[in-house]
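Trying the structure run again after the queue cleared.
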Amino acid sequence: MKLFTVTLFSLASLIAGSGLETLVKIDSGLVAGSGTAVRSYKGIPYAAPPIGDLRWKAPQPPKPWKGVRVAKSFPAMCPQTALLAGPTSEDCLGLNVWTPAHSSAEKLPVMVWIHGGGFQIGASSQSLYDGEPLASQGVVVVSINYRMGVFGFFAHPALSKEGVDGNQGLLDMVAALQWVKRNAGQFGGDPGNVTIFGESAGGTAVCYLMVMPAAQGLFQKVISESAAWMFNPISHVRESWYGRVPFEQFVEKQFGGDLAALRSKTTAEIVKLAGPMDMAGDRADRGEAFMPAVDGVVLPDDPARLYSTGKFHRVALIAGTNADEGTLLGGPPVHNLAQWNKFAAKQFGPRLEAAAKVYSVSTDADAYDMAVRVNTDYMFLQGTRSVLRAVSQVNANSTYQYQFTRVSGLGKRIKWGSFHAAEIPYVFATLPDAAYGTSASMIGDFSVQPDDYTDTDDRLSKAMSGAWVRFAKNGDPNGPGLPKWAPFRQGEAYLEFGDQIEAKHALRKTELDFMSDFSAWQRQHAAAAAGTSGH
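Done. Tokens:
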């Protein structure tokens, strides 16, 4: 005991002398972070580096370390197209923690953020995901990196023999949540009160986690922002669906059959083999490569079927979308009636006549706006409503919908309106940061001007971030600054976060009823073509 006391005293002196303000013992070793009212710990590994023989395998436990790991720098970004500034590496499976707790006994709610980016780009280090403002409201915030693109969603016949069917990125998320369950208490968090939340691909991911057997019991609440592709076509690993080549077959043809040789290649060589990023997933030869796919284990079936048949985890849910999601990356290339006719024919095929009754365009001036509405409804809103409808059947009093309609000065200037991801800095209370950075980038000029965000935006941010935190605390987002936010089951109620915050009902019902029928037809058509039962 005496030796231990001396050793501990010496360690404490070392920490104080080196300027380390905090020290926490987790299951893999000691970590030191920084901060006062809110303390942050960045770049903590939750899994072993997925390199060498571990490339494309399920995440493995991190190797314990001796001494103190200084956790003051974000993990490297996982390999991706060069849209974001910062170092990338396959050694990227790290997470970050922000906590206001003063002791491990406080048992604060935990909020785990999963970033978006089409399962191809993004990182927990993006500035608008700073967890300190949320944590200052009385929660522990965790943000994670996960493998993406060809490194995170890679199916191959040789991998199947190793027991891996792709979806490595989804398994990374499970591993991170298992880390939270084991270690959140050390940061003053309650591992029995975990909310997962994410946007775009992250919003889709949290919906996938709700139907993944491996994620059972790892979270109690979900917030899905702008989930994409829910109830839309999804690729299958070994079966041809929606006219797409099976994922394994596509990958083996493009990469060859020698898995050992592929694991010996450099990161850059693998990226080159994968080809250009294809977040739209609209090429029949590659499907949604490299993105989540139905493999029968990690994703047991089409998410649409799993939700429709009640095979999802019983958790509280907030889900919503933005009014102008379809302006993403500048919107569809539709600027006149002729272009609209081609767009609609490709989108709806044999159902074009029925679609024209709901989405009617008669002049060039209407074409672009209507195409944006179609993209928004099809890719984002109808799937979100379908998930809400399914979950509210079994959790009627803890399922909520929102719609974000605020058009900031930035949204007006770039002519994207209430665009995809525009709500994130409101939720994180990181205004005036912007969803795609605060300066000119490869996808547009997002330089934030002094008058882009006003007192209205500040008030809206306080209301949204406060509602998200209250939901994480007790499953009910209602509170100061909001009108009564009724559960979705009460007439498909939703709360609109815009210039005003208003309670409304039955968002875009006519259009979404058609889109739901259209998506059901797509699934039935795909099942018939594949020779299986309908979804």
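The CA atoms of residues 212 and 299 lie 6 Å apart. Worth checking whether this holds up in the mutant runs.
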